[in-house]
Amino acid sequence: MDYRVYRPRPLLRLRYGLEAAGLTGIGALCFYNSLWACFLFPLVLWRHGREQCRRMAERRRKELKLQFRDAVQGIAAALAAGYSAENALREAGKDLRLMYGADGDMVQELSAMERKLDANQTVEQVIWDFAGRSGLEEAETFAEIFAVGKRSGGDLIGIMGDTARSISDSVETERQILAALAARRYEQKIMNVIPFAMVLYLRVGCPGFLDPLYGNLPGICVMTACLGLYLGAWYLGERLLKIEV
User: Disulfide engineering: 121 pairs with which of 41, 49, 89, 116, CB 3.0-4.6 Å?
Assistant: First the structure.
């Protein structure tokens, strides 16, 4: 599984389609007051689906990072108990199965590693394969350091301990940032809704007030410019609140 790409299930695809249809309908009503604007639905569906898949992939990688940290800690504990690197992977899989169940992403990855080890692949190869598909910078760094440490006889227990601590620090920092930005994200969601709420209020409370902006070329140009400004502000707000750790 490539954790950098999220492929939604059919039911989730249907949900994204309904959401895109709702967004298209509201936009067509507020900015153009015309069913012709609904022909933008394929573009909205593509952009909305892409954004949702990106968010789901990011959420899945965050969960994988936590499980990877626990796996590294389990491998380090097994190495400290005298297991070889290959058997330490098997022991870590048993521990994670109790924590996350058989369906956990990292549990399944460790099971796949065990099968590859049984097929005579080296432990370095199976870790490199996972790191390349995980999309986690920590996993790629760990795979590189682990390979060098195993070949040179380095302190694998210390390497894994440092990796686990680094991931824990990253997760804690990310949580603090999210907590600090929680109010700003809530405000952004409200601001995203306000333009549509204002247009709908004017259409209901003052019938005919916006009629000069509908059904003619100058009005279409003005409303298209307004829509462009709204989308630009939405994108800028998303970028400002997106902080990589």
Answer: 116
Number of residues written out for the chain = 245
pTM equals 0.79
Q: What is the 3-state secondary structure of the chain?
A: CCCCCCCCCHHHHHHHHHHHHHHHHHHHHHHHCCHHHHHHHHHHHHHHHHHHHHHHHHHHHHHHHHHHHHHHHHHHHHHHCCCCHHHHHHHHHHHHHHHHCCCCHHHHHHHHHHHHHHCCCCHHHHHHHHHHHHCCHHHHHHHHHHHHHHHHCCCHHHHHHHHHHHHHHHHHHHHHHHHHHHHHHHHHHHHHHHHHHHHHHHHHHCCCCCHHHCCCHHHHHHHHHHHHHHHHHHHHHHHHCCCCC
Locate 126 and state its tokens: 């199976």
Alpha carbons 140 and 156: distance in angstroms, whole number:
16
